[in-house]
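To whoever is on call:

I kicked off a structure prediction for a single chain this morning and the downstream step that reads the tokens threw a length-mismatch warning. I double-checked the sequence; it's 73 residues and nothing unusual in it as far as I can see. Pasting both halves so you can look.
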Amino acid sequence: METVKEKWDEILDRVRKEHELTDIAFKTWLKPLSVYSIEDSTVTILVPKDLIGIEYISKKYTLPIKVATAEVT
């Protein structure tokens, strides 16, 4: 699972391409996210404190991030 940290940029880029996100949407919602920890098969993603919209991110991007993570790793 350490591969997730190593390939995080690639994972986010795959989500951007597959869901045809604009540069603004990508930089606003996905780029600020980072991998905080990995335990077993659970990846905890860190969301910056100043980034409002955690519910929006969770609802819209959880599944695409899971799929991209599985594909890349």
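Update from on-call: the warning came from a stale cache, not from the record. Cleared it. Sanity check on the structure: The two ends are 8 Å apart (CA to CA).
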